[in-house]
Amino acid sequence: MMEKEQVRPQAPATDYQHSNNSDEENVLKKTSRRRKYIKWCSCLVAAITIVVVVIVTLIFTIFKVKEPEIKMNGVTVDNLGFVNGTVPVLGLGTNMSLTADISVKNPNYSSFRYKNTTTSLYYHGAVIGEARGPPGQSKARRTARMSVTLDIIVGSLLKDPHLQNDLGTGVLTMSSYTSVGGRIKILTIIDRHVTMRMNCTMKVNIYSRSIEDQKCKRKVKL
After folding, report:
1. CATH homologous superfamily for 69-221?
2. What are phi and psi of 147, to 5 degrees?
């Protein structure tokens, strides 16, 4: 007898359609997850970009350390031992002093704390007086003023060969040098050391005890 040919049964159409539907659902899920991932990454990149832009803007605006300004507002003569422009009244016991009114303007959004202020007074290149001001601070976007008194070293002044001629004109030409060093801290992120220097030339009228023709040059180092 001839063996009957065995015929394999074909899969039902419904199972084939179900398989296609499952594949399509998987593809749709993967596509949806990919879109969500891309969207999440885009949002993250956008957020990081915004934060970086804000930080950079703050660094170049509010957080940018600006140069403080030092200024000599004026100088007053407290004691002057000259009488009628003569030298004999000067002696070791003679008191002579100048008081300098100095201000420090702080344009930053944080306080500027400075150490002792050093001021020296010169007459024809020789030091004839020195003074040290106390430490302090110039608050954010404020101006601090300090008064520095310089006691003149009379002995050094008497030794200068130009003194007699200058007394004849009634005007003594002097110069001063002031140095202020400190730090500016902004939110503990930025810490900068600042040094300010100021050189001034002035003419002291020994009769009116006033300052004439004062000129100053300033230099700030961050």
Report:
1. Immunoglobulins (2.60.40.10)
2. -115, 120
